[in-house]
Amino acid sequence: MRWAQLTLVENDPGQYDPRFWLDYFRRTHSDAACLSAGGCVAYYPTKIPLHYRSAWLDGLDPFGDLVAGCRKMDMVVIARTDPHAARQDVCDAHPDWIAVDADGHKRRHWAMPGWWVTCALGPYNFEFMTAVTREIVSMYHVDGIFTNRWAGSGMCYCEHCRRNFRAATGMDLPRTADPRDPVRRAYIAWREQRLFDLWRLWDTEIRKINPAACFIPNTGGGALSDLDMRAVGARAPILFADRQARSGLMPPWANGKNAKEFRAGMGHKPVGGIFSVGVEEPYRWKDSVQNGPEIRLWALDGIANGLRPWFTKFCGVLHDRRWLPVVEELYAWHYRNERYLRNQESLARVAMVYSQQTARYYGGARARQKVEDHTLGYYQALIEARIPFEMVHDRLLDPAHVDRFKVLIFPNIAAMSDAQCGQVRDYVTRGGSIVATYETSLYDEWGAQRADFGLADLFGASYAGGIDARMQNSYLRLETDPATGRRHPILAGLEDAQRIINGVSRVHTQAAPGYRNPPLTLIPSYPDLPMEEVFPRVPKTDIPEVFVRQVGQGRVVYFPWDIDRTFWEVLAVDHWKLLRNAVEWAAHEPPPVVVTGPGTLDVTVWRQKNSLTVHLVNLTNPMMMKGPLREFLPAPAQQVRITLPAGSKAKKVQLLASGLIPRVIEGIGTLTLTVPAVLDHEVIAVDL
Ligand SMILES: [Zn+2]
To answer: For residue 391, what are the CA distances in angstroms to 223, 243, 347, 378, 405?
Structure first.
């Protein structure tokens, strides 16, 4: 439930204080540790030729000593290896183990002079690191091997990669990163298979020695991650989300997003959330320490979203100790409340789909802008709307994975196979609802454009040929149904508006016959300069900019424009209301929890064995969108209404952060209560 990672540096042995670390593990109630063992540097008396021992080892066994200390405290221990780099003697003895660039040169390490980058797909990993792995498990009987940077450091043109790729495909290695190139596609599939082969090899060798242990790759993530998360989730008994802190512009909910993305592939299997205590920027201040509130909020958002916390520290000699009490306090709270943190399932009824194939084959080199920015925009909108939600992998759209949700969101999930479109159609036939944006289903699974949307029948709209990639100064007209004199509920909160801003890109669509009174219509772009010319040339059209439909018991909302991506860029409140309303209208049922009050909260709702919890993570902060918190600003009191699972009754309700027992009003299947000010995090725990 609580992980501690100490990554030793080469000169730690003999200099750092292992007793301090073991005591810190104890004080933090860490029940599992990840400790540096081998690879780049061995921290134990290895007998494997070319496995470089720390020059400070001096007859010591720092890894073995830490393992023994952890075992005395009954901790689970996994060993960390890192095979991505090697020293000169390795290069001299086995030049073919070193990665080669496109020009045929051996790759020197980008950060460490004198070291070399190794090839991940050849004998260095398959033979040498297999021997290292075997030796560590045999000598220390660890519970697992966790391998960092095991999948290579970019494209490799070494003799093994060239030969093996040719043997497998009959082709020479690709010279382009363009995913439309068939050679590139073949390489993507071959590399993935090679890494899964390596995974299987290491796992098999580990289990031969310790059947209860396993190989744990440092891998996984969302749409931009490279190994298929469906396949990863099927193989891994446990995984760790290695997103250590914010980088660039990244709100603190990004850690919770990792949790959701990993869970989409992993299901109920445990996922640890690796957080570091320093800043994560390209300049790599690896010994830095962030402000306490920043460390806390990042870790708390992960915990609220189901991650088991894992702190990681590089270097056994501490140059800055300010993080120690922060993590100790957080872990002590986690330990005290552990029974309410052993989640069995999320009770969220909404899920957002993510798609690695869309990022890979439709997004290509621009996947961050073309794919991920849509997801981030809808994610931010759901956070602001306080709608608990999960994420779903696009290759897991079968009933077992999606029927627990009432609404699936497709934020520009452009690349979908016919089979995937069929699964979505079946989901709606079974009563599910969908919300989709922009080019969703307009491409097949390889990123080839279709003549029409794969989901045209559900959208009630067809592709009319053409995309406005960049609209300048375009608007949306809010329409009233002339028959009823009313507006569609998707426009709730915009009663006083006649028109709002449009997005930036739109797909030309043709409405299915019979689609009348669209809630939003297009006001086309008109000049934005000179100012004398800024007046609408066409004040009204009948071109729908949202399609809303009832399909049996299901509901469908389709925005043929980049509302989610524009929201991420511009954060216009009118777009937020549409994004929120679309989900609420599509859900058409009472949500599992409603939290009312000022501020921005990440709300999650969970079921444990005999309890239910609602987490409120207070993101209200002037630093929210980047996350460099100076201090917590308490969110004022919040009204909370919880819908209890059918047939259950609340025995006891408590607040796990403040320790208060709130006054609860019991309704029919509901609880209503007020949560006093939330400093950083509150958990409403309901014993059932
Ligand atoms: Zn290679």
So the answer is: 11, 17, 13, 12, 10
> Separation of 205 CA from ligand 1 center, angstroms?
22
**Is residue 164 exposed (0-12), middle (13-18) or buried (19+ Cβ within 10 Å)?**
middle
Check: CB of residue 145 under 8 Å from CB of residue 81. yes
Task: Please state at what angle helix 130-140 crosses helix 182-209, rounded to 10 degrees.
Answer: 30
Q: ∠ CA 245-246-251 to the nearest 5 degrees?
A: 125
d(CA 247, CA 282): 8
SS3 (DSSP) at 625:
coil
Ligand 1 center to residue 133 CA distance, Å? 20
Going from the first residue of the chain to its last (688 residues), give the mean pLDDT of each consecutive group of 10, the final group possibly shorter. Answer: 97 96 98 98 98 96 98 98 98 98 98 97 98 98 98 97 98 94 96 98 98 98 97 98 92 97 97 94 92 97 98 96 98 98 97 98 96 98 98 98 98 98 98 98 97 98 97 98 95 98 98 95 98 96 97 97 98 98 97 98 97 98 96 98 94 97 96 98 98
What's the CA gap between 55 and 41, in Å, rounded?
9
Sign of CA dihedral 249, 255, 257, 258: positive
Residue 194 identity: R
Q: CA 275: distance to chain centroid?
A: 14
Ligand 1 center–CA 202 separation, angstroms: 18
Residue 228 C-alpha to ligand 1 middle, in angstroms?
21
Q: Are 269 and 236 in contact (CB under 8 A)?
A: yes
Whether 421 and 454 have beta carbons less than 8 Å apart is answered as yes
Please name which of 408, 397, 415, 409 lies closest in space to residue 359, comparing C-alpha atoms. Answer: 415
Cα of 173 to ligand 1 centre, how many Å?
10
- Cβ-in-10-Å burial (0-12, 13-18, 19+) of 494 comes to buried
Whose CA is closest to 323, among 283, 371, 288, 358? 288
Q: Could you tell me which of 572, 570, 556 has the C-alpha nearest to residue 490?
A: 556
Ligand 1 center–CA 194 separation, angstroms? 11
Q: Could you give the C-alpha distances from 113 to 50, 85, 106, 312, 573, in angstroms and in order?
A: 19, 11, 14, 25, 50
CA angle 490, 494, 500 (to 5 degrees): 95
Dist CA 476 CA 460 (whole Å): 19
Q: Distance between CA atoms of 348 and 305, rounded to whole angstroms? A: 11
Q: How far apart are the first and last CA of the chain?
A: 22
H or E stretch at 24: helix 18-27
